[in-house]
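Here is one such protein, fold included:

. . .
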Amino acid sequence: MKLPPDELLQTALFILVGVMGGAVKYLRQIQQDVKKFSIIQMLIMLITGGFLGMLTYFLGTSMGMEGALIGFMSGMAGLMGDEAIRMYSDKFKGGMK
């Protein structure tokens, strides 16, 4: 799958939005004393958020959604983290219905 430059930039933007969602989740957990700061845990949240932002971008574009809605969904997926992965897995485990 080869992406044109403008679509590649758009994909990178939504990955970044997902990363920011993961960062917000981690910082909120630190602020609420749920977790102590750990660079490894932070990197895990950022990578997970970016991965979810990318998945959400591909899902949204395949469904014909507008860019702003996909951006919102990418950020929320990054913020949800492993909960979003669980939701995506449950929804698409048996294929799209």
